[in-house]
Amino acid sequence: MHSAHHHYHLPLLLLLTFGRVVAADSQLKTLLVAIFLIVDALVLLILLWTIYAFCRRLKAKETGTENPPPAVEAIEKGEGMRRDEEEDAVVQEPGKITFAKDGGGFGLEDLLKASAEGLGKGSFGSCYKATLDGARMVVVKRLRGVGPVTEEEFLKHMKSLSAMEHPNLMPLLGYYFSTTEKLVISNYACRGNLFDRIHGGRRRADRTPFTWSSRLQVAQGVAQGMEFLHLNMRSSVPHGNLKASNVLLDENDNPLVCDHGLVPLIPASLAVHRMVCYKSPEYQHNRSVSRKTDVWSYGCLLLELITGRVAANTTPGGVRGGELCHWVNRAVREEWTGEVFDAEMLVQKRATSGMIMLLKLALWCCEQSPEKRPEMAEVAREVERVTAGEADEEDD
Prior knowledge:
Elements: H1 2-24, H2 26-63, E1 98-99, H3 108-113, E2 115-122, E3 125-131, E4 137-143, H4 151-162, E5 172-177, E6 182-187, H5 194-199, H6 212-232, E7 247-249, E8 255-257, H7 268-274, H8 281-286, H9 291-307, H10 324-333, H11 353-365, H12 376-395
Antiparallel strand pairs: 1-5, 2-3, 3-4, 4-6, 5-6, 7-8
Helix pairs in contact: 6-9, 6-12, 9-11, 11-12
């Protein structure tokens, strides 16, 4: 009995003995406390990092930007691609550019080595003008926010877009796909975009006036390009993002519509904030878009072209605009229509009959109800009538 009692108390005696040793050795006690604190801190850091990494992955999946590509060093104007931010840099990855029939003659490494300058950020990516050996200039657009499409889906869609050949559509030279990069390559338009042509350099003495005949040429070319898209694309919204900054001008002021056909590639959650079609009256009222939404976008572009004013629905980032459709409708109602026209295109300080006809067409395209708007083919015929009428007046 006595022996069993001693065995029962043995662990307690050992613990008390160890306690006396620890208490006697203050340095050992301090060391043990320090070890416990360090371990606790490491566990806390690991826990915080795990939570942070999980939140980043969750956010990346929601925005379609998982696995962001690493930056590639780039220098502006004559020394390579400019590196403003990591997300803007063009990334060199294994693989080849797929060229349309009129493209070719260079590879991905040639683009990375080319002297280049940033052209700005659009709705779905940054653009660069790259000057290749031999002074050939191309525009490289890095698509951002593209949905979770496979390589096969992306290449198939780009192949169908590159088959869309029309004098008033900017042709695709080539495209490139990887898990982290989607690049679209096209020719460089030397006159820039329509937005800058209308609004840029207004107070500069060396500005070349944007005449009525040049604006009518743009209106007709864009209408014809849009008609072609509506006849040849199955999409419910063939363009979806028609605005002045997406109309480029060549050396003869001929318009080239770009950025068409991207609706199927962009997640709706992103497109609704960045594409013009989702700012239309029908989307605001009942969350629907259609081919007539492109017609509304064309009407807004016409109003901007005629009035020289910035349209609120299609302005680039950082630029303020007004509600042109309401303003012009009010002017027509109150019979001060002549004041809506951009003074720069009024040669004799008065509007011609062609200007009045084009203004009426713009308002027709901007009808609140899609059913009241014309088809794109009818729009193109009406602009042709205006052009023919103006030519007859000049002959007279």
